[in-house]
Amino acid sequence: MSARHFLSMMDCTPTELVSLIRRGMELKDLRNRGVLFEPLKNRVLGMIFEKASTRTRVSFEAGMIQLGGQAIFLSPRDTQLGRGEPIGDAAIVMSRMLDVVMIRTFAHSTLTEFAANSRVPVINGLSDDLHPCQLLADMQTFFEHRGSIAGKTVAWIGDGNNMCNSYIEAAEQFDFQLRVACPQGYEPSAELLAKYGDRVLVTQDPMEAVRGADLVSTDVWASMGQEEEAEQRMARFKPYQVTRELLDAAAEDVLFMHCLPAHRGEEISEDLLDDPRSVAWDQAENRLHAQKALLEFLVEPAYHHA
Ligand code: CP
Ligand code: NVA
């Protein structure tokens, strides 16, 4: 099918990504000035959530309403998806009724299978492998505070998870260096490391990763779906807590980001979100603006390029 999808950062060109970030900033400004902008009037977003969410759900739903459209929340519990309807069949039917679909799921193949059968754009709202929408917000946040991220150094501390994988793709697309500090056995995707290895240094030493970094980012130690491993992970990840002291080893003007939800006392110290170097709340807000730019780009590209 010919629809344009956003399943990973690699689905857009670097130029398109930068223009999405700029557009997110423009849409944020319009909203702050109280200007109504409704290019998606009568358009409908379907949101399939197989995992919990606060930010992704609220930002997509509020974003569609602000753009003049509507969003429908779909959980497998009360759709036929939960009773075994093949994902491809659901994609054929839903995409005949909707204008765009967002899916938060476990296996990344659910997204690719849905997309392969969809007439309309499909957006990855997080899979076990990737979380590209969060990276749009993170990149917008860095641009707002510090300008271009090209040539900068980013440190990822903790689990080599879906967020970390998307940071690797972002390093390639936005032209920065990434240092990942994680315990042995918790490295990011070997496939991505093989592809973009020249962008990424993997170490077990958080200090080595953070030294001189312009951005430090982390995430929970046990992601959704890993609840049973949580206890064992707590012990393994203990040396990887991000603290004010660790940030002191980074660049003078370092920014700290966390995609949230945060577990204070685990992956971050109790006080880290209160540190002036943390921009986690701006980052969370930017999910709204960045995804509005994405929705506009996928559903009404004419406005995006206006
Ligand atoms: N960061 C993020 O995706 O948050 P939610 O799980 O609340 O959507
Ligand atoms: N890595 C986390 C991100 C949550 C937004 C998870 O997948 O649960």
Description:
- The chain has twelve helices and nine strands.
- By secondary structure, it is of the alpha/beta class.
- The protein has two domains: 138 residues, 3-Layer(aba) Sandwich (Rossmann fold), CATH 3.40.50.1370; 153 residues, Aspartate/ornithine carbamoyltransferase (Rossmann fold, 3-Layer(aba) Sandwich).
- It has a five-stranded parallel β-sheet.
- The chain is globular, with a radius of gyration of 19 Å.
- The two termini are 26 Å apart.
- Bound molecules: phosphoric acid mono(formamide)ester (CP) and norvaline (NVA).
- The site of norvaline (NVA) has 9 residues, from helix 6.
- InterPro entries: Asp/Orn_carbamoyltranf_P-bd, Asp/Orn_carbamoylTrfase, Asp/Orn_carbamoylTrfase_sf, Asp_carbamoyltransf_Asp/Orn-bd, Orn/put_carbamltrans, OTCase_ArgI.
- Keywords: Cytoplasm, Transferase.
